[in-house]
């Protein structure tokens, strides 16, 4: 005789949304992941962000079919009494199922091999030019080639973090450490921690770290209230110094992007040297050590300090194109305050994202992020499949009245600068008081 089911309501579920008390619902069944959160491969933060909600759509987006078999050990015996599925969620899950049957999540093409070959050519050309040429112009070009090398390395690191680009998990892990830590100087552990939070909380001002660039940039005047970052677990203070920088952010955007990589270097070390639990911490540190050996040695091979600085600036500036791309996809899109909504997965992902319109022969340059909407809806989908599924994503958005924003590369730049300028002009409003800061007062003193 079947046992009667125990039911709770969505309101009851909402109360279990704190560290040590994390419940989630998947297809109406309730799971207690309180103890397991620390072992979650995607980190505890995605679970914390979505705790107390039905997370079926996000689970479907991030997990292969094989993951369902592991859920039962977390089932706590409860079901959602008021569990419902929206029409957009039904269609979204149907698409994921169809893509799985078509094998699109496994068909990775030859993109990885081609990218590795391209990277090898860029790296060898850059090193050869530094070691065997005396021309200043050649050295300048070599710095630019190194920047392009880092961009392609970044795309591979991004892909290997979302899905298995190699035949085995160990090889995939090796590629992550190689492309991220060893070749680019950026901890793949930091990137995954940051990037998972971004995807789950796309364009939430207080949950998405990709919008939290105080004091350099803000995309909304809501930051003027010194909101608390749930990612960094600290207050983002909008003081006089921040007001000064933000007031000119539309003018400093590209110069800062040229050196944004320095922040990624710093964030990598901050995480690895912290008390936070970091998987494979030793591997991560060893990878960074490799980078900080080969890159400085290469720079030191240049004949003068002027050329050394020129090479560094060129390599950082060119790879800054990639950092600009990251901003274009989200800075000018809709934003919101608060945690992400599990019941509005598709809506939040599409409204906070902008696609970049480009011909297929330019796909290598954008690394798949030109299909940012498709990537956010189907994050496990290999880069080579994004153009193929774009019509399906567009139709999903059209059918359910969801935004599908797309703009050419240059127009996306204009939209981003317009967003930054709007916030900058609001920051200059001195009727909105902030704590006094000598830099701000000195620059704006008149008479």
Automatic annotation (TrEMBL):
PANTHER family: DELTA 8-(E)-SPHINGOLIPID DESATURASE, FATTY ACID DESATURASE 2
A GO molecular-function descriptor: oxidoreductase activity, acting on paired donors, with oxidation of a pair of donors resulting in the reduction of molecular oxygen to two molecules of water
Pathways per UniProt: Lipid metabolism
Family matches, as Pfam families: Cyt-b5 (PF00173), FA_desaturase (PF00487)
Record bears the keyword Heme: yes
Cellular component annotations (GO), alphabetically ordered: membrane
InterPro entries: Cyt_B5-like_heme/steroid-bd, Cyt_B5-like_heme/steroid_sf, FA_desaturase_dom, Fatty_acid_desaturase
Family: Belongs to the fatty acid desaturase type 1 family.
Biological process annotations from GO: lipid metabolic process
Keyword Transit peptide among UniProt keywords: no
Transmembrane segments: 111-130, 136-153, 174-193, 253-273, 285-305
Superkingdom assignment: Eukaryota
Domain (Cytochrome b5 heme-binding) ranges: 5-89
Its membrane topology: Multi-pass membrane protein
Record's keyword terms, sorted: Heme, Iron, Lipid metabolism, Membrane, Metal-binding, Oxidoreductase, Transmembrane, Transmembrane helix
Subcellular location: Membrane
Protein name: Acyl-lipid (9-3)-desaturase
């Amino acid at each position: 005789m079947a046992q009667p089911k125990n039911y709770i309501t969505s309101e009851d579920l909402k109360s279990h949304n704190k560290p040590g008390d994390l419940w989630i619902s998947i297809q109406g069944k309730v799971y207690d992941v309180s103890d397991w959160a620390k072992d979650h491969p995607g980190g505890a933060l995605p679970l914390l962000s979505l705790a107390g909600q039905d997370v079926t759509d996000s689970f479907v987006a991030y997990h292969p079919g094989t993951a369902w078999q592991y859920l039962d050990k977390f089932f706590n015996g409860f079901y959602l009494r008021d569990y419902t599925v929206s029409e957009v969620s039904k269609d979204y899950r149907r698409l994921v199922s169809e893509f799985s049957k078509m094998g699109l999540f496994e068909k990775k093409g030859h993109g990885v091999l081609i990218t590795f070959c391209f990277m090898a050519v860029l790296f060898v050309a850059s090193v050869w030019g530094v070691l065997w040429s005396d021309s200043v112009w050649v050295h300048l070009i070599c710095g630019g080639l190194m920047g392009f090398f880092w961009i392609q390395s970044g795309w591979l690191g991004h892909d290997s973090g979302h899905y298995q680009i190699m035949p085995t998990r160990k090889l995939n892990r090796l590629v992550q450490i190689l492309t991220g830590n060893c070749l680019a100087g950026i901890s793949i552990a930091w990137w995954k921690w940051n990037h998972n939070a971004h995807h789950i909380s796309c364009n939430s001002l207080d949950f998405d770290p990709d919008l939290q660039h105080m004091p350099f940039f803000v995309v909304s005047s809501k930051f003027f209230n010194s909101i608390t970052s749930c990612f960094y677990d600290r207050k983002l203070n909008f003081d006089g110094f921040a007001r000064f920088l933000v007031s000119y952010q539309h003018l400093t955007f590209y110069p800062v992007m040229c050196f944004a990589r320095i922040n990624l270097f710093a964030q990598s070390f901050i995480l690895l040297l912290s008390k936070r639990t970091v998987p494979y911490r030793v591997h991560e540190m060893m990878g960074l050590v490799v980078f900080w050996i080969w890159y400085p040695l290469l720079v030191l091979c240049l004949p003068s300090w002027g050329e050394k600085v020129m090479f560094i600036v060129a390599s950082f500036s060119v790879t800054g194109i990639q950092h600009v791309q990251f901003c274009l996809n989200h800075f000018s899109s809709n934003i919101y305050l608060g945690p992400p909504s599990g019941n509005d997965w598709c809506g939040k992902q599409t409204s906070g994202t902008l696609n970049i319109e480009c011909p297929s022969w330019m796909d290598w340059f954008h690394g798949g992020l030109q299909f940012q909407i498709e990537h956010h809806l189907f994050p496990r989908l290999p880069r080579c499949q994004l153009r193929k599924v774009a019509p399906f994503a567009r139709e999903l958005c059209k059918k359910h009245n969801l935004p599908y924003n797309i703009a050419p590369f240059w127009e996306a730049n204009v939209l981003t600068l317009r967003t930054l300028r709007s916030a900058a002009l609001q920051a200059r409003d001195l009727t909105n008081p902030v704590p006094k800061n000598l830099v701000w007062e000195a620059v704006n003193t008149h008479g």
